[in-house]
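Proteins fold reproducibly. Take a sample protein:
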Amino acid sequence: MKNPVVLLLLTTLMILSGCKNSSAPQFDSAQITESPVEEDHINDTEIPAVPTDSSSISPNITYGIASDEDRLLNSEIRVICYGTSMVYGTGGGGVTMSDVIKRISGADAINYGGYAENTNCIAARSGANKLTLTSDVTIPPDETPVEIYFESEFGQVDLLLINTDSGLNPVKIGDITGKLTREDDHFYFTRLEPGDEEHVSASDIIIPYSVSRMQNTDIIVIWASGNDYIQNSEETNLLIEKMDKMIAFNGNDKYIIISKTNKGDDIPETDEINKSLKEHYGNHFIDLREYLMSQASSDLGYPLDEDDMIDISEGLVPRCFRADNEHGNSLYYFVAGQQVYKKCQELGYLK
């Protein structure tokens, strides 16, 4: 029997467009449109009947929303979500993990997801991977783009600004705020407002937008590594070093690490990577892959079908949670948001 309370919440959020179960409530995905989020703007996609008053929801919801009192307290706290297209929400039809966190907890959840980016680029947008000018630059008094040259502390950032500038722009170079853009393999800085010409020396740091907004109470969620194509333990250890630097840069011990979920011929070490992440990060780690493959369907009250069971036998996340071989659907991102909120409660970060 389906859990009626969970069914109510799923129905009100209307995010079941990706689930195949014919008995599950369905809706036309055309009702909502893909609305990628940039900078710190929460997804504003309209999802009808989303409850804002907890009195309309049963207090016994296992994965429900916070009470009105707790939502008010949580609203003062920011949950900063850094990561790949999984954080960005690719395949979710407008539903993102950060949006779900915001809607069910009341916290100010911010989406800094970058499509097709590796951890070097994600860390650069967070400010932990410092981007340092390698030559002097003279910024003109008007909004004329000027080419700049920089290096990354973590190494190559070949994918930076290919698809998104979430959390990066506007950047600050010297005392001037502007936009960092890319044309082929060349980077340009364009000031936002006219002013005095300024000479900036090599070794100056490019300051991302996310850094200018940092608060010492921020909770950071890191869902990275999906585009790093890690093949061995040495590369896994390097990934952990980079994540450790992102955590340290945040300035407190409030963090959550989410596992890799996809697995294929090009990423054979997924389970080993997750094992290493769990050992290193302990209770701060969410094994979302394991949860989706073992417990999520039961908790939500929807039995898996034969195709889903075949997926699990092959080491894959069940297809009722996936939009394609790599990305999740709306239900997948709903589960991710729930699990992050639950972990925030366990760690005492949110009410």
Residues 1-8, 14-62 have pLDDT under 50 and may be disordered.
